[in-house]
Amino acid sequence: MLGEVVFLLGEQAYVKERLACGEACAMLRARGLAAEVHKAAEVADEVLKGRDGLLVLTDDPDRLMTLTEAGIPAIAYRHEGCAETSFSGALYIFEEPQEIDADSYVKAYQRAAGEPWEILKTERLLLRETTVEDLDALYEIYRDPEMTLFMEGLFEDPADEKRYMEDYIRNVYQLLGFGVWTVIEQRTGDIIGRAGFSVRAGFDRPEIGFLIGKNWQGRGYAKEAVEACLVYGRDVLGFAEVQALVKEGNAVSVHLLESLGFQTRETVEIEEDIYGGVYPGGENARTAIGSARRGRYLEMFLRL
Q1: Alpha carbon 198 to chain centroid distance?
Q2: Domain that holds residue 51
Q3: Which residue of 41, 112, 217, 240 is 20 to 30 Å from 178, comparing CA positions?
Q4: In this structure, what are the phi and psi dihedrals at residue 246, rounded to the nearest 5 degrees?
């Protein structure tokens, strides 16, 4: 959890940018966070190591690299004095830090520290990014054969699923800023399913998907999660229209989506099990071309 923000500035930038950074620090302190501005040369990386909840903003790309290599959550700070500087590899580049809300600092810290983003809360549910640590609970949910009657399951080998999830966190959450998220029952803290958005090849609209484990079905959790995702998609992600692809025969999901205003456009065929049951992972990941099955799905849509 973010608890402290430190700005490290070059000698000249400390004079010119200290006021803007000071305003940002005042805003962060008002939100209960510690915040300081320092000359970069006066603070060694060793001093910053081991400070839990620390996020560093630096205007020096070399310093950014050394901080990151040392495991210190850090992002780039671009100002007039380094406007042409390349911050290659930076997770985020902040400009005008006094204009950035505290939640953006929190999310930048979480991304740099490898922590999942908390996406939204409803009266009973919490939706956050999925982590590798969630996989044991998800395998328990998918173990029931009913869970995969109308959708694909997890990889048979947990090692494949772990590699897939690591790539998903890096290539989907980090690049798109959204994805399919873990659904948690707030009262118990139990992982009860997944819900969120994806982008499917061959389709223009973001796709919403959802799954609630059998032990938690019949309580309205699926509708609660989907409805909250739709509001988030409209208000935060700026989606104007979303689609859902529902396998033929899945009357329960069709009924739920229709109750939220979805309409059926047509029936389409889409690929299933595109990896052929094994995930290569890494830079050489590729689909098993020619081995994928095809299934018939209702293409449903909703204008937000």
Answers
A1: 11
A2: 4-113
A3: 217
A4: -115, 125
Last residue of a domain, one of 88, 113, 138: 113
Q: In Å, how far from its chain's centre is CA 155?
A: 21
Half-sphere exposure of 34 (CA within 13 A, CB side): 10
Q: Is 235 exposed, middle or buried (0-12, 13-18, 19+ CB in 10 A)?
A: exposed
CA distance 154 to 279: 11
pLDDT at 39 over 80: yes
Distance CA 242, CA 90 (A): 31
> What are the angstrom distances between the C-alpha of 185 and each of 4, 124, 181, 251?
29, 6, 13, 25
Q: Based on the structure, what is the number of domains in the chain? A: 2
Average pLDDT over residues 268-292: 61
Q: Would you state the structure tokens that stand for residue 161, as one six-digit string?
A: 């699923």
The pTM of this model reads 0.87
Sheet of 93-94, strand order: 34-39, 4-9, 54-58, 74-77, 93-94
- Both 127 and 194 in one domain: the answer is yes
Other residues' Cβ atoms within 10 Å of the Cβ of residue 244: 23
Q: Give CA–CA dist 297/110, Å, rounded.
A: 37
In sequence order, the β-bridge partners of residue 8 are 38, 58
pLDDT exceeding 70 applies to what percent of the chain?
94
